[in-house]
Design brief:
This protein has about 300 residues and is an alpha/beta fold. About 40% of the residues lie in helices and about 10% in strands.
């Protein structure tokens, strides 16, 4: 119901829970298939996946049977308790079910980040742990003393990273966006340079190390999973990361590239199915309160013609 949206909107604190999942199923966006909340999204082909907990077991099993070794980054407070999830990561799996000519079943490892979907939570330490672990796992950066242990049982298996939270909307999207920002084209390839993606191109100067700003990184991720929407606290952490990476604007790379107001417009339009012009009008009428603006759109207070 619409009351569920008001209580737990998909852009605010606590929006990774099942009530939003049920609400979004009942109100599909014109931009996004409603079953995306039950599916993973491939952010970087064969390398980086983002999605909800309910889809992790199927994806990890499929990757392992293809001989791929996945690192699963779990962005949730609670430890895993789904039997299929635990079996997919820790189980031996049936070697006779291998696919794509795999010579062996790829081993999987789990990195658990205890992240509440709360705007007051400081996600910076979680981002740092995930970036170090993923960099080591994919061979994108040297391992340091602070890198969480993600030792694997074979060096021959191709590797992938699966990042998830409850719904694949805020916590996991924050981590994936940070990975794209930190590793840039080393992780995402030339697709990150697509001129159709809004936001400054990755800086080539040594100070940035190939990193990319928040606007381009988040737009890159959103283009592949339209429902992603880090909460405002997490966005603040990502803006701080941009400055730390020197991936923003200005001579020192610390000028923000991200416009929070424009992000609210895109989020509201994506969730409600309204045009960006209508979303902007609704936000103006609601004093930039996204929850209230959504109510204005769904109740017809603000339309394309008002």
């Amino acid at each position: 119901s619409f009351c569920t949206l008001l209580a737990r909107p998909p852009w605010s604190v606590g929006h990774d829970g099942l009530p939003v999942d049920r609400w979004m199923h009942s109100r599909p966006s014109r931009h996004q298939p409603p079953n995306l909340f039950r599916m993973t999204s491939e952010i970087v082909p064969e390398r980086l996946f983002l999605g909800p907990e309910v889809a992790v077991a199927h994806l990890v099993t499929r990757l392992r049977l293809r001989g791929v070794s996945p690192l699963v980054v779990r962005c949730m407070e609670a430890a895993a308790d789904r039997p299929d999830y635990i079996e997919a990561i820790e189980g031996p799996l049936d070697a006779t079910a291998r696919t794509d000519g795999a010579s062996s079943v790829g081993p999987a490892k789990l990195l658990h980040l205890q992240m509440p979907d709360d705007a007051s939570h400081d996600a910076a330490p979680d981002i740092a742990k995930a970036t170090a672990a993923v960099g080591e796992w994919l061979g994108l950066s040297p391992q340091s003393a602070d890198t969480p242990s993600v030792d694997h049982t074979t060096s021959d298996s191709p590797r992938a990273v699966v990042v998830h939270c409850a719904a694949g909307v805020s916590r996991s999207a924050t981590i994936v966006t940070a990975l794209v920002m930190s590793f840039g084209t080393r992780l995402c390839g030339e697709a990150l340079l697509d001129p159709a993606i809004a936001g400054p191109l990755p800086a080539l100067a040594p100070r940035a190390g190939g990193a990319v700003g928040l606007e381009r990184a988040l737009n890159f991720v959103t283009a592949r999973r339209h429902v992603v929407s880090p909460n405002e606290g997490f966005l603040a952490c990502l803006m701080a990361l941009e400055a730390k990476l020197g991936a923003g604007g200005g001579e020192d790379g610390t000028t923000p590239t991200f416009d929070p107001a424009a992000h609210k417009v895109r989020t509201l339009a994506g969730v409600t199915g309204a045009s960006e012009a209508t979303a902007r009008k609704a936000l103006d009428a609601a004093g930039m309160d996204v929850n209230r603006a959504a109510e204005f759109i769904f109740t017809g207070v603000v339309t394309d013609t008002t």
